[in-house]
Design brief:
The protein has two helices and 18 strands. It is mainly beta. It folds into two domains: 138 residues, Immunoglobulin-like, CATH 2.60.40.640; 115 residues, no CATH class. InterPro entries: Spore_0_M. It comes from Micromonospora halophytica.
Length: 262
């Protein structure tokens, strides 16, 4: 996606900026590449910097309220200060590093319902900052993440939606101030005991921490409760494990421990 926006801070005749992504598709830990084209207006100005920021929508829960906000979670300054004369053009190539914990937005060629992700260009002129519109970015799963998702699909789970929640998961190493939850409708064989399953990936260069949460149905003599599972997937050996069998065993044990049955 390309955006071109007149600098509001400068008014008519000010500089304009256009950002073009070579490829809007990436994976966690990868890179986004492109060019930023800055064009001078009808008078010269001093540019303090040009920067890029990766932004996603985050759900924030407070004591008495819940709201969504756009949060920048990765930032890269691509220029220092420079003089932009009237009519002058700068073509600035960039490579933007995508954090390993970046939430996924696309699965098997389809956008995950509930996800927003974009790269925003920021330019400061005379202490006035203009942040352009978001260039849409698609974040696809790593091979290790794909294996877990494929295993759930093989078991019969179906994608529902996803969101990003501000906060940290207890007992999990986490560098970003939020985490993603990918929600699934239960597979038929678990539907009598499970309302939904939520999956979270906390990814590092060599491994991915996986957090599973199942929202259980309450029965006549039992109360609906949540159950959690946590394990680590090694990127180098992910293909040596039957993940569908592993997940099925954990789900059955968790359900039966609570006195619920299929």
């Amino acid at each position: 996606m390309v955006f071109k926006r007149l600098m509001q801070a400068m008014g008519v005749g000010g500089p304009s900026v256009e950002t073009v992504l070579a490829n809007p598709h990436c994976r966690p830990g990868g890179q986004l590449e492109g060019r930023i084209q800055v064009a001078g207006g009808d008078h010269g100005v001093d540019i303090s910097y040009v920067a890029l920021g990766l932004v996603t929508r985050v759900e924030v829960e407070g004591a008495d309220s819940e709201y969504n906000t756009n949060q920048e979670f990765a930032r890269q300054q691509v220029t220092g200060p420079f003089r932009l004369e009237a009519g002058q053009r700068y073509d600035i190539p960039f490579r933007f590093q995508v954090p390993w914990e970046t939430p996924l937005t696309d699965l098997y060629g389809q956008r995950l319902h509930g996800m927003t992700m974009g790269l925003r260009t920021e330019l400061e002129v005379a202490r006035s900052v203009d942040s352009g519109d978001l260039d849409a970015v698609s974040v696809h799963p790593l091979p290790a993440q794909e294996r877990l998702l494929e295993a759930l699909l093989r078991l019969g789970f179906r994608f529902a939606r996803a969101d990003v929640e501000r906060g940290h998961i207890y007992g999990v190493r986490q560098s970003l101030p939020f985490y993603q939850e990918i929600e699934f409708f239960p597979a038929p064989q678990y539907a009598r005991a499970i309302n939904q399953l939520e999956l979270t990936f906390i990814t590092e260069p060599r491994q991915t921490q996986v957090v599973l949460e199942i929202d259980k149905r309450g029965g006549v003599l039992s109360e609906g409760r949540d159950a959690f599972g946590r394990f680590t997937v090694d990127h180098a050996t992910v293909d040596t494990v039957d993940w569908a069998a592993q997940l099925d065993a954990w789900l059955r044990q968790s359900i039966q421990r609570r006195g619920l049955f299929f």
